[in-house]
Amino acid sequence: MSREIWVGVDIGGTKTAVVISRKPPEVISRTEFATLPAKGPQQAIDQILAALKTMLSELKTSKRMIRGIGVSCGGPLDPHAGVIQAPPNLPTWVDVPIVDILKKEFGCPVVLENDANAGALAEHRYGAGMGTRNMIFLTMGTGLGAGIIIDKKLYSGSNDLAGEVGHVRLTKNGPVGHNKAGSVEGWASGGGLAQIAETMLKAARKSGRKSLLLDLPKKRKVTAKDVGIAAKKGDALAQRIIMACGKKLGLALAILVDILNPDRIVIGGLAMRLGDTLLEPARESLAEEALAPALAICTVVPATLGESIGDVAALCIAMDAGAQKSA
Question: How confident is the model at residue 220 (pLDDT cuts 50, 70, 90)?
Fold first, then answer.
């Protein structure tokens, strides 16, 4: 068995995970800790370095055996310079040279990639996109972004901004996402779903309709999770909220299908948790809007890597880092 290892670092606003693999996507060691962005980047970086050193020691291996380190993080970032540039969920991480920090400490190839692109690679290689030639992966979490696979390769664009579908405007007015009212992210994301819910709940209160969501404390804003839980319990209003989100998601999917002509669109986050309650209305509006020949060869499915996608995504970037050294 090869003693070489790959290391993945998945940096999020809530948590950071460090994983080690000898045969991706299998993980042989994993450490997770709170990122705590309010305390600044240095304390989290120190924990990343310390965690990886401890993990190497426990596995009785050394940094010389690291073939590559992959870092997955939300944008904006500069993958060429290896710098994290204050993502919305990491506002204190201003121009953090994470690649140089890790290279200096471990002396191996290190690559930084945004989480949507990394997720696309993970689902294409090991998840719902396996076997496809052209695939789109949507990160449908608090926000919405996309990773694009064309001819089995990641497409990043001229300055690494390809996939910002969340910024596309769907309607003149509407929920706000990507600092734009009526955007795809505003309508079709966890944050957008919560905004749709607030609007529909106001109407429900005026009409006297009943809903489990109306039983929530008035001082607390409703979340996408609240809506999902209520919908699973059969709450009609919650199901209508998800349907409204799904319909707008379908309009965004139609744009992607008509422009990029993919074999498959894989959707993470909410699509995994809400399933057909979200995807069926999305598929319906997609069918109404997209070109029929392009739609005929395209399937829309939830991501299959589940909660492990961040780990696998970071390892995919690590593998690419190692491949760049070999080349």
Answer: confident
Q: What is the pLDDT of residue 2?
A: 62
Alpha helices, H only, 16-144: 41-58, 98-106, 115-126
Q: Summarize the confidence of residues 181-201 as an average pLDDT.
A: 94
Instruction: Tell me which residue of 246, 241, 126 sits closest to 188, measured CA to CA.
Output: 246
In a domain, 204, yes or no: yes
**Burial bucket for residue 315 (CB in 10 Å: 0-12, 13-18, 19+):** buried
Enumerate the H helices of the chain as residue ranges. Answer: 41-58, 98-106, 115-126, 184-187, 190-207, 224-232, 236-260, 270-274, 276-289, 292-296, 309-326
Residue range of the domain that includes 181 = 128-304
Is the pTM above the cut of 0.70? yes
**Which residue, 148, 146, 147, 143, is CA-closest to 180?**
143
Distance CA 294, CA 326 (A): 38
Contact 311/8 with Cβ under 8 angstroms? yes
Q: Assess if residue 123 is contained within a domain.
A: no
CATH of residue 231's domain is 3.30.420.40
Same domain? For 262 and 149 the reply is yes
